[in-house]
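Run: sequence + harderoheme (III) -> complex structure.
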Amino acid sequence: MSEAVSTLDGWWSLHLLYNVDWTSLKTLEESKKDHLIAELQSFLEREEEVHKNKEGSYSFYNVTGQKADIILWMLRPTIDELNKLELEFNKLGIRDYLIPAYSYVSVIEMSGYLAKESDEDPYENPYVQSRLYPEVPKSKYICFYPMDKKRDLDDNWYMLPMEERRRLMYDHGMIGRQYAGKVKQFITGSQGLDKYEWGVTLFSDDMLEFKNIIYEMRFDEASARYGIFGDFYVGVHLPADELSDFFK
Ligand code: VOV
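>> structure
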């Protein structure tokens, strides 16, 4: 049996994607619409407070294309908190006008492939902490997609020796490093939690950089040979103070 890599696990993650029921929303009285928008705004303001207090993080984007209209990504120390938060969101008035499009449950993950040998507790390391309990940026654009590593007879990631996987992840990281300052990546693990094995959530102020990095990685063995991808969701940042323009 190949050796499983150890992982460090951070905040729990929930991606919620919805389509807006524009037809029903259009028939709603203006004052009722204002009320729904204000309620959603105060939900997002509470998220912002949690984010500022470093007790979790979140992001809210307008998805491009017909797969969804909005994506809400929330991070919290426990899955129980996310569960409660989802319920809170479901009880908002605007939720009656949102049709679930997709959801993804996972947990922020760092694999040990490139970890240095050390006696210190990695969870006490400030760099590790910044990765496991991250401040999600408010970049102009988001790109989210789930992915697997292949388990075919000839190309089976999980049957590769540890050293080979380490080499492949090193090469992968070297490509990623060229995008420092251009693309911020968050990898969440979802083995046993959702349909795919990882969620990839990227942020950038230039939408083209998503295409650049993902295309370049396609030629790298870790993706070229072993990557299997779900749907891609891209979108534009939707600040709380622009909700009125968005919904009206
Ligand atoms: C900004 C770019 C960027 C950078 C710097 C980066 C670096 C790194 C490093 C150093 C490591 C390994 C250690 C760790 O931290 O886990 C990883 C790990 C991982 N990555 Fe990555 N990745 C990036 C970006 C990046 C992208 C765009 C993708 C999607 C791949 C594609 O083809 O669409 C991705 C995927 C992953 C995954 C699924 C894992 C976990 C694999 C596993 O088997 O455990 N990643 N990644």
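>> summary
The pocket of harderoheme (III) is lined by residues 110-111, 113-114, 147, 169, 172-173, 176-177, 179, 183, 185, 187, 198, 200, 213-214, 217, 223, 227 (CB under 6 Å). The chain has a mean pLDDT of 97.
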